[in-house]
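Handout, section 3.2

Students often ask what a structure token actually looks like in practice. Rather than define it abstractly, here is a full record for Acetate--CoA ligase family protein. The first block is the sequence as you would receive it.
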Amino acid sequence: MSAAAAPSGLSSFASLDPLVRPRSVAVIGASDEPARIGGRPIAYLKERGFAGPVWPVNPKRPTVQGLPAFASIAELPAAPDVAIIAVPSALAIQALDELGAKGCRAVICFTAGFAEMDEAGAAAQVRMTEVARRHGIRLLGPNCLGVFNDAIRFYGTFTASFEKGWPIPGRIGIASQSGAYGTHIFSAALDRGIGTQVCITTGNEAEVTLGDVLGWMAQAPEVDVICAYAEGIRERESFLAALDLARRNRKPIVMMKVGRSQLGGAAAQSHTASIAGDDAVTQAVLDEFGVVRARTTEEMLDIAYAATRRIYPAKNTLGVLTVSGGAGVLISDAAEAAGLPMPPMPEEAQAKLRALIPFCAPRNPVDCTAQVTNDLKLISTFVESVAVDGGYSSILSFWSQTAAGRSLGPKLHEQMRAVREAHPDRLWVMSMLAPNKVRDYEADGWLCFEDPSRAVVAIEAMGRFGAAFARAEEPRTDIPLPSVELPAMTPSEAVAKSLLAGAGIPAVPEHAAPDSEAAVAAAESIGYPVVLKILSPDIIHKSEMGGVLLDIADAGQVRQGFATLLDRARHHAPAARIEGVLVAKQIKGAVEMALGVFRDPVFGPVAMVGLGGIFIEVLKDVAFRRCPFDTAEAERMIRSLRGAPLLDGARGRPKADVAALAKALSALSAFAVAAGPRLAGVDVNPMLVLPSGQGCYAADAVIELAGGSH
């Protein structure tokens, strides 16, 4: 794990306790009408039997919903653990200030009309944040739907979701920037019988951020699994600290991060005044910490439901037992699409099963056919073989409606229960159309899905969690940073390569030549053929103006090429500063890769690797990671590319020097951090990767400085 993966911020997570586990509650703007925003929390707290005092503040009424009311915050009998602000925006900041003076240190602000509206609202939110920080208040919101924690019957929320039912017992926590969508997730879970007792919505995040909430859940005993909905990450340190803590505590996070598209990103900004950021960078950060990203609410709940079993195989394999050959094909397709391995059963085990049912297909999927319904004892034999002989970490059984039948259902359940009890360390999943049996199977430790393809997606996610948890146990690697001194102005290619070479990113042998005779001397010292390139700090994309000449074979071609490049530069970029021509060794037989760095506004320097040349723009086959990272992580990035087989000797090519490429990529990530905020970006394209053991060399490099200094 990189040195950047363990940020500070852990101590702030526990300070959210009064927001989620208060012993007393004040409601500012309390309403006597249970259906109004200022009335719902009081009604919920009363109905659910919150144990602590509830203090309504309303200067116009002596009582609110049967509780004694207080005319002002100053008249409260004590400082509440948490206060709910439900007054108009013009009064909200004053109420916050008065609560701080009273000694309240946790506030939930329902009030809207701040940064999500306009510049004036944004300025008011800044003032609100300043007030909260001056008093040491943990402020949730504004413009949030609040919190509920049914474990202590605390309902600091005005959602109407509870009209369809109260939370059921469970250990899934919901953290959401959107209040409406956070409670939508709760309602969808309730419909499926999935327990979500804790839900925290952050709204505009004037003070408490999504990262703070994730961090609180990562250490909260009420929560084993975290569902998160995010529109944009505004604050880095707490977010990264939370992901790191959740991974170390083996608490899986399944996240819906929306705003992938430009349209979606714009909607996110107007909705919660957050910055959607670069989706590819966010994805890289989630991958780094093993957060599984869900595409839909249904998928989020499928994965969270599966995670409640708390079985996370680090090396996940799927064994399938089915009574339908068609279902086996469907499951196999889904597993391949998800990247979930389905190794075949051992030959000896296959022979044993064929001896029992000659027409079965026991490879994997293991199709035992409907014949087992004639001899139900065969079921346990087949399932036991899949578990023991196959050794799969996850086992999916497809029984369709058979499990629901009055004649076969109970006997099938008995057989499956016995095998599962004998191997409790496996992830056991049932695909069946038997709503009458789901709760019984779940009580025995099974996961139940109607759709086997959805089951496969959830099973694959458990393996990703397991692999991430295993990485968290690896020793942390300190990444040594080089000494980097950036020039005052954007450097030429030659200077850029020299800077990178000093940090461990090797360049092709080359010399800068101010005139044609110097170019000839350089070419003859390097050896023909050579490459000639115009050398100018003002011409970044040389190939677009014909500024690169290949296969220069002798001194005459060097002189002619030198003149040609200067003529083209004067024609296409008459104002550019020309330092001469770069003469470089021409390397053939290499795989062209591309390395790069750019500075993300939230997560800082981010490194990239992909196929080089024009393919990076056409195919967009790239991987990203936060900087810095070690060579092992660099190699994982390289291996994740769809084009990685090109490096492993595809179509008879020699295997490329992936180790050298990983070393250069890691070195680039360290250079990016050491260079500091003046470094806007680095582009090394192509990086020529030679056969194994021969290294890799930067054939072109650009270093861009912040502000475009020239």
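Discussion prompt for tutorial groups: The chain is about 35% helix and 20% strand. How would you have guessed this from the sequence alone?
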